[in-house]
Amino acid sequence: MSSVSFTLNDGTIVPGIGFGTGTALFGKDCAGQVKQAIDAGFVHLDGAQAYNNEESLSEGIKLSGKPRSELFIVTKLRPGALAEHVKPAFDASLKKLGVDFVDLFLVHCPIAMKAGDPQPDLPEVWHEVEAIHAQGLAKSIGVSNFRIPHLQAILPTAKVIPSVNQLEIHPYVWKTVEPIVKFGVENGNITAASYGGLTPIVRAAGGPLDPVLATVAERLTKEFGKPVSTGQVLSKWVLQKKIILVTTSSKEERLREYLQTAELPDLTEAEIAEIDTVGAKLHKRVFMKHVFDDTDPQ
Ligand SMILES: NC(=O)C1=CN([C@@H]2O[C@H](COP(=O)(O)OP(=O)(O)OC[C@H]3O[C@@H](n4cnc5c(N)ncnc54)[C@H](OP(=O)(O)O)[C@@H]3O)[C@@H](O)[C@H]2O)C=CC1
Ligand SMILES: O=CCc1c[nH]c2ccccc12
C-alpha cells in the first residue's frame, strides 16, 4: 500500500497514489488491471462515468477480494451533465460500482465537451453534488479541470468547499497550473490531484527536461541503493508539492515502482526548482484542451 497520504479539508485521509481507469483503459474492461493494481498495493481507484467501465472496475474489486472498507473509490460526473442529471447519473454510478457510497465524487469538467452543447450552471451542479454529500453517499466531494474562474463561480454559494481539484499536473504545464493549485490552497485548502504526471517521459520525450530528470534519477539511485527511474522522479516531484498522484499502468512491475516512489529519498529544493525552471521552457498540455486553451501560452 502507498505509505503516502493526504488529509483533505473535510478531514478525510486519501491514499496519495491512485490507480486510474481512464486514458489507456477508457471504454475497456478494466477488471483484470484493477485486480492487478489492488494486488500490487493500490487502494485508491480513480474512475469516472465518462470512462464507461465502472462495472468492470467493480468486477476488479470483487476479484481482488479487498474489503470495501480498505478502498478509496473515486468517480466523476460525466462532462456536460446539467444540474438535473447529477443525482440520476450518480445513482447509476453507485449501481455500476456495486457500492452504497463512494469516497470521492468529482465534477469531471466545468464546461460542456463540445461547443454548442448546453453549458452546465456550475453553482446549481455543485448544490446537487452537495446534496449527495449531505446524504452520505459521497464521503468527500470535489472538482476536476476547474480553472480559477470556475472555482470562483461556485465558492460564494458553496456550503461545502471542494476537497479536491484534479488537474493535469506535470512540469510542462506547471507554469499555467500553479496559480490554480495556489488559489485552491488559499481558498479553502483545496487539495490538488495530478493526472498525466508522466507526460514529460511518456508523451513529450526528447524535451528539455530529459537530462535534468536523468541526472536526478542517477543521484537518487546512488542514495537509494536501487534503480530509480525518471518516472519516479516525476512522481516524487508531484508528491513533494503536496499533490495527490493519479497514474496508471498495465504492468505489475511499474505499479510496484509507482508505489515505491513514496519511500524514495526526497528531491532537494534545488532539484525541484530546476525541474520547475526547465519545465517552463516547454508547454505541453495533453488533456482537456477545450477548458485550458485560452490560458496557455501556445
Ligand atoms: N480528470 C481528468 O480529466 C483526467 C483524469 N485522468 C486520470 O488519471 C489516470 C492516469 O492518467 P495518465 O495520463 O494515463 O497517467 P500517467 O501520465 O501517469 O501515464 C500513465 C501511462 O504511462 C505509461 N508509462 C509509464 N511509465 C512509462 C515509461 N517509462 N515508458 C513508457 N510509458 C510509460 C503507462 O503505460 P504502461 O501500461 O505501459 O505502463 C500508462 O499508460 C487516468 O487513468 C484517469 O483515471 C487522466 C486524464 C484526465
Ligand atoms: O479523464 C480524462 C480522460 C478521459 C478519457 N476519456 C474521457 C471521456 C470524457 C472526458 C474525459 C476522458
Automatic annotation (TrEMBL):
The keyword NADP applies. InterPro entries: AKR, AKR3C2/3, Aldo/ket_reductase_CS, NAD(P)_OxRdtase_dom_sf, NADP_OxRdtase_dom. It comes from the Eukaryota. PROSITE patterns: ALDOKETO_REDUCTASE_2. Keywords: NADP, Oxidoreductase. Residues 33-278 form the NADP-dependent oxidoreductase domain. This is NADP-dependent oxidoreductase domain-containing protein. It comes from Mycena chlorophos (Agaric fungus).
